[in-house]
From TrEMBL:
Protein name: Protein NrdI
Family affiliation: Belongs to the NrdI family.
HAMAP family in UniProt: NrdI
Originating gene: nrdI
Molecular function as annotated in GO: FMN binding
Function noted in UniProt: Probably involved in ribonucleotide reductase function.
Annotated Pfam families: Flavodoxin_NdrI
Length: 139
């Protein structure tokens, strides 16, 4: 199973960012778009990439599909970090879904990027993830 699990809405901004990371086959898994679809079952430690939805004070900012996935205890237990996507137009709510998930699951919010991310964001995340996984205990 994947080392990077992500959710992307129909805008596909997060999907395009993850595609640019150029992970090898089997390294990346996408959460289902529809909440009625069965969620994934994580099998090894992973980093979650998720967008934030615009909402007042963070309420409703975490996609329901992410909540459904993390409500499965075995998935939550394998979460090692979060990468948040957002839109700076939302000011203090920028990447708030990543902040919320990181706080609730007690994992680091490793990085934040806007919309589809820049080439610099991609390079920083690629390098950062390599270093992050080197520092993690073997599983």
């Amino acid at each position: 199973m994947a080392r990077l699990i992500y959710f992307s809405s129909v805008s596909n901004n997060t999907h395009r960012f993850v595609e640019k990371l150029q992970h090898g086959a089997g390294e990346v898994a996408r959460l289902p778009l529809r909440t009625k679809d069965e969620t994934l079952a994580a099998e090894r430690p992973f980093v979650l990439v998720l967008p934030s939805y615009g909402a007042d004070a963070g309420e409703g900012s975490v996609p329901k599909q992410v909540i459904k996935f993390l409500n499965v205890e075995s998935n939550r237990n394998l979460l090692r970090g979060v990468i948040g996507a957002g839109n700076t137009n939302f000011h203090e709510s920028y990447c708030i879904a990543g902040d919320i998930v990181a706080a609730k699951c007690r994992v680091p919010h490793l990085y934040r990027f806007e919309l589809m991310g820049t080439p610099e964001d991609v390079a920083t995340v690629q390098t950062g993830l390599e270093e992050f996984w080197k520092q993690q205990p073997s599983h």
